[in-house]
Specification:
single chain, 290 residues, alpha/beta, Helix Hairpins, Pyruvate Kinase, Chain: A, domain 1, 2 domains, 6 helices, 5 strands, elongated
Length: 290
């Protein structure tokens, strides 16, 4: 049975943990506000550039463009976007679970290459001897647009030179503070834009300068970079939301545990006092009897 000193020491330890989790919750809340604002600002640009491509695309452009080239998939790159740190609930584990499930859907004989954005995903797949084609750690500590440009260009180059036949992204999309949605989407070759040529009937009669095809090809790499930048921002905001929720739950649990320990401490202390009183009374009665 634990002594009063042990219980008191444990209460102090839980109180210290509660202070840490409360501070981490406040830090996550501050980072979440900035990350949420950034992703909300990035979404309209990414959506509009995708919509513009859907207006410009024609079947002829797709057939003759390397970005849309669907070839036999012998090498697939899976870009896994996780966090660099833990203490964010099931944020990382759920995403890794989704990736392992996706692997079962890939046809046998296809070489799987992992491109890990975030230390947690890199450590998981490296420790299990998966083929790591590239990685970025400490990416989300100070997320910059230049990082998205570098990663996008590397993926584009490896797709165009035939290293990868297909590139798939798996990431957490930010929905709210308490909700993240795991998304698996094809990055390269670029999926056929929604609507395609049908969207031309909804547009005014634009005059393109220099010409429609040149503008279309110019926007392709811009589109990919904008989408990956949005995805990194989505993951960053989702991570902070998950961490804030996890630290809030940990703080609440610590409070309940402290209450329970205090109750136990008071009961044990009362029992000890009662025992001492009984010993005194018993000793006093024994002396009187003698």
């Amino acid at each position: 049975m634990a002594t009063l000193r042990d219980i008191k020491r444990r209460i102090k330890g839980v109180q210290n943990t509660q202070q840490i989790t409360k501070a981490m919750k406040m830090v996550a809340a501050a980072k979440l506000r900035r990350a949420q604002e950034a992703v909300i600002n990035a979404r309209p640009y990414a959506r509009q550039i995708s919509l513009l491509l859907s207006h410009l695309v024609t079947e002829e452009y797709q057939v003759n463009n390397s970005y849309f080239l669907n070839r036999e998939v012998k090498n697939i790159a899976i870009v896994v976007v996780t966090a660099d740190r833990g203490l964010c609930g099931a944020f990382n584990s759920n995403l890794i679970k989704e990736v392992t499930h996706y692997l079962t859907e890939i046809e046998p004989g296809v070489n799987k290459h992992f491109f890990c954005l975030g230390r947690k995903g890199y450590e998981f797949f490296r420790n299990r001897d998966f083929n790591i084609a590239g990685s970025r750690s400490a990416l989300f500590q100070s997320l910059k647009y230049e990082d998205a440009l570098a990663v996008t260009q590397e993926l584009i180059d490896k797709f165009l030179d035939g290293t990868f036949d297909k590139v798939v992204l798996v990431y957490n999309e930010f929905k709210s503070i308490i909700q993240q949605k795991i998304v698996t989407e094809q990055f390269l070759p670029i999926p056929e834009p929604e609507g395609g040529e049908n969207n031309h009937t909804k547009l005014p009669d634009f005059i393109f300068e220099p010409d429609q095809k040149t503008i279309f090809e110019y926007l392709l790499s811009k589109h990919l970079k904008a989408q990956l930048w949005r995805i990194l921002l989505e993951s960053s905001a989702a991570e902070q939301g998950a961490r804030m929720t996890a630290m809030d739950n940990a703080t609440t649990n610590a409070k309940e545990l402290i209450r329970s320990l205090n109750l136990t401490y008071n009961k044990e202390r009362q029992a000890a006092i009662t025992k001492e009183i009984l010993e005194i009374v018993t000793g006093s009665n024994a002396l009187r009897g003698s």
